[in-house]
């Protein structure tokens, strides 16, 4: 294996000195808060940090609703690998209320397809890392992000903003071990490795709001998805032959009930996800422009987000005026990019959230969404705030509620500039 090439000066034997204000000087790393998932990278890291920096490690594992995790097993693994402690934090409620709800109000979607589940999770994970680092006397926060992704931006930026006295290390950015070397390191250090060495697994990230898969054939753009990538959503071909209509009720932009049953937010998100997954809804095969310049293909499974964002958007359209409905998507897009790009803590986000809250004050009502073999479509709509008058729409002839005789006058003025411009160009054309 190649020795890492130091970028700048090298201190004693602890690795290169930092090039930024927030990265740790190796000689100042004494106790590290490691964001620990229990996977190969962070397990190798747990040992590697102790060895490489002669430092203590406190592990933190955050539950954002990723399905199928056994947190007791993860905690046990961290302690076996020498962690002083391993905190497991159930942050599902905070994630749902403080991160997913603002995203719903902002119709949070990046690149027309990605509902931002990872981008929403990282600032919360990093905020908790700052809290737990402080509480457990750590000087440094370590995470398992690579140098090619968006997640490093989100985590580093959060730590540098919320914990300016803390420093960051991201060993994967510098240690130059590939999967094979990591597996070898793990074997040498008694770290259990799941799945063997033969086939590298997909790189998965998931939480209450969605799941992403990267790597393997996904990097080949001419390779259509293989079935085994879909672990959450039923393949549309295999979904039920009968459609299902699910109704979603919102109060002030927040989903509060499914099919007439009021639910706590976390349960509602899980149930919406399960219904969508059953019907093959929420598969996204997406080319994404990362903040760090790369274009990458991702496979997303986002059944809950697909249903709830669709229903929210439909309800918003119904209760907003044409003027509100034209501005909102512009601000939504700003919101989504700021969050995608790792700047959750920028004051622009809270400024935009104030607008989102104001716009959502009227977003109360119910939308029925029909699910069928991968498709989701709004089929029923109702709201006490609908800017809609069935009489005006259908019986204007008989009514007298709106004088159709006024329309020609409107058209006269509405088309005035267009007519003048057309005439001028006609004259110039000779
Ligand atoms: N491309 C998405 C994003 O940047 C998903 C990233 C998934 N993260 C991961 N570590 N696999 O938000």
Please provide a written account of the structure.
It is built from 14 helices and 16 strands. It has 430 residues and is α/β, with parallel strands linked by helices. The chain folds into three domains: 175 residues, Rossmann fold (3-Layer(aba) Sandwich); 138 residues, Argininosuccinate synthetase, chain A, domain 2, CATH 3.90.1260.10; 39 residues, no CATH class. The radius of gyration is 26 Å and the shape is elongated. Bound molecules: arginine. The site of arginine (ARG) has 10 residues, from helix 4, strand 8 and strand 9.
Primary descriptors:
430 residues; alpha/beta; Argininosuccinate synthetase, chain A, domain 2; 5-stranded antiparallel beta sheet; 16 strands; binds arginine
Describe, in short, the structure shown.
This protein has about 425 residues and is α/β, with parallel strands linked by helices. Helices cover about 40% and strands about 20% of the residues.
């Amino acid at each position: 294996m190649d020795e890492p090439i130091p970028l700048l000066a090298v201190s004693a034997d602890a690795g290169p000195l930092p090039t930024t204000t927030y990265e740790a000087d190796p000689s100042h790393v004494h106790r590290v808060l490691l964001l620990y998932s229990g996977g190969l990278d962070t397990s190798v890291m747990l040992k590697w940090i102790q060895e490489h920096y002669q430092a203590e490690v406190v592990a933190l594992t955050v539950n954002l609703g990723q399905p199928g995790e056994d947190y007791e097993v993860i905690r046990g693994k961290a302690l076996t690998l020498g962690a002083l402690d391993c905190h497991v934090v159930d942050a599902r409620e905070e994630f749902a209320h403080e991160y997913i709800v603002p995203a719903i109000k902002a119709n949070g979607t990046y690149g027309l397809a990605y509902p931002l589940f990872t981008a929403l999770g990282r600032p919360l994970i990093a905020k908790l890392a700052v809290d737990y680092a402080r509480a457990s006397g750590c000087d440094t926060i370590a995470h398992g992000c690579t140098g090619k992704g968006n997640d490093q931006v989100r985590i580093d930026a959060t730590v540098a903003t919320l914990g300016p006295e803390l420093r960051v290390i991201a060993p994967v950015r510098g240690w130059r071990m590939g999967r094979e070397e990591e597996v070898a390191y793990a074997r040498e250090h008694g770290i259990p490795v799941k799945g063997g060495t033969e086939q590298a697994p997909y790189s998965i990230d998931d939480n209450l709001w969605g799941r992403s898969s990267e790597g393997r054939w996904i990097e080949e753009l001419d390779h259509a998805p293989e079935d085994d990538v879909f672990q959450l959503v039923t393949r549309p071909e295999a979904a039920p032959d009968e459609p299902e209509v699910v109704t979603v009720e919102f109060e002030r932009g927040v989903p509060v009930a499914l099919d007439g049953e009021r639910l706590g937010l976390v349960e509602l998100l899980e149930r919406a996800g399960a219904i969508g997954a059953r019907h093959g809804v929420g598969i996204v095969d997406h080319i994404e422009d990362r903040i760090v310049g790369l274009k990458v293909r991702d496979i997303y499974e986002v059944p809950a987000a697909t249903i709830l964002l669709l229903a929210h958007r439909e309800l918003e359209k119904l209760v907003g005026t044409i003027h509100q409905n034209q501005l909102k998507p512009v601000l939504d897009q700003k919101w989504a990019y700021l969050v995608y790009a790792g700047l959750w803590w920028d004051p622009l986000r809270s400024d935009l959230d104030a607008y989102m809250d104001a716009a959502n004050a009227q977003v109360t009502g119910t939308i029925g969404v029909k699910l069928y073999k991968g498709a989701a479509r709004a089929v029923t709509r109702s709201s006490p705030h609908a800017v809609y008058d069935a009489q005006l729409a259908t019986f204007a002839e008989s009514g007298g509620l709106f004088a159709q005789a006024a329309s020609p006058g409107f058209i006269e003025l509405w088309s005035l500039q267009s007519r003048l411009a057309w005439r001028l160009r006609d004259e110039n054309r000779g």
